């Protein structure tokens, strides 16, 4: 029998991120450890599915070259969970783990994407760090090694994506409900079952690699997640950096937020 709640899988990859400053690796790879230490799995009544270990973070060109193999490894594991009828909750890691999730779903059938993020991550020129172009990649706009694994480009179609909470002012050829529109009550979901991507930088939060002014409150994010749950086949959480949260208060608040949002 499949587990009826969340099945929690760690994807502690930093491969999509630049160094924070010369010689300093980002700490997003410890996101899962921080949220687990706050009791996330137990509080959700979740099942522990372990981790898909990432190769070492080194330099941008080398990291980019490592992402395809990691994407396949993550997609293979998620595919096992999906075939077993599980509902995965993937704890990153950076936003490049979205490639593994959407590849798994593309192999499985026709799915959409609910993209909750302070940025649109749709850079297609001067590309380097995949965490800044993950939405472009999963909709087919990158080199074959990233965007056409198994000949399955695109992993998700533009018309099956809705982005929520953007405050970057960037553009992408998907339905965008930016921060102001979201607060004004605009709402939509993909027309097909979908994966939920939550980047912690959608919050008013400093413990991320690219903080911006304003952003959702924890209560607002919990409400967005709760509203997305009925059509969701799984979810991922990315970019929170415990190294920028020395007293652990942001990890505790983010865990509380996810528990409030992700419980039925």
TrEMBL record:
<comment type="similarity">
    <text>Belongs to the arginase family.</text>
</comment>
<protein>
    <submittedName>
        <fullName>Arginase family protein</fullName>
    </submittedName>
</protein>
<dbReference type="InterPro" id="IPR006035">
    <property type="entry name" value="Ureohydrolase"/>
</dbReference>
<dbReference type="InterPro" id="IPR023696">
    <property type="entry name" value="Ureohydrolase_dom_sf"/>
</dbReference>
<dbReference type="Pfam" id="PF00491">
    <property type="entry name" value="Arginase"/>
</dbReference>
């Amino acid at each position: 029998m499949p587990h009826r709640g969340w099945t929690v899988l760690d994807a502690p990859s930093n491969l999509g991120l630049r160094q924070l400053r010369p010689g300093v690796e980002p700490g997003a790879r410890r996101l899962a450890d921080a949220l687990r230490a706050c009791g996330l799995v137990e509080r959700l009544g979740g099942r522990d599915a372990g981790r898909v270990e990432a190769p070492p973070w080194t330099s941008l060109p080398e990291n980019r070259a490592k992402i395809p193999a990691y994407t396949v490894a993550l997609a293979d594991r998620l595919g096992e969970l999906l075939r077993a009828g599980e509902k995965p909750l993937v704890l990153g890691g950076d936003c490049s783990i979205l490639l593994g999730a959407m590849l798994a779903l593309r192999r499985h059938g026709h799915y959409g994407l609910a993209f909750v993020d302070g940025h649109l991550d749709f850079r297609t020129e001067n590309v380097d760090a995949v965490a800044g172009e993950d939405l472009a990649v999963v909709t087919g706009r990158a080199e074959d090694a990233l965007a056409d694994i198994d000949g399955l480009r695109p992993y998700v179609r533009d018309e099956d994506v809705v982005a929520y909470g953007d405050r970057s002012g960037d553009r992408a050829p998907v339905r965008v409900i930016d921060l102001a529109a979201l607060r004004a009550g605009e709402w939509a979901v993909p027309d097909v079952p979908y994966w939920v991507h939550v980047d912690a930088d959608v919050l008013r939060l400093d413990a991320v690699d690219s903080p911006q002014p304003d952003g959702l409150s924890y209560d607002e994010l919990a409400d967005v997640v709760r509203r997305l749950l009925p059509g969701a086949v799984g979810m991922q959480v990315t970019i929170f950096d415990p190294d920028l949260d020395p007293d652990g208060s942001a990890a505790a608040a983010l865990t509380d937020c996810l528990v409030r949002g992700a419980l039925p």
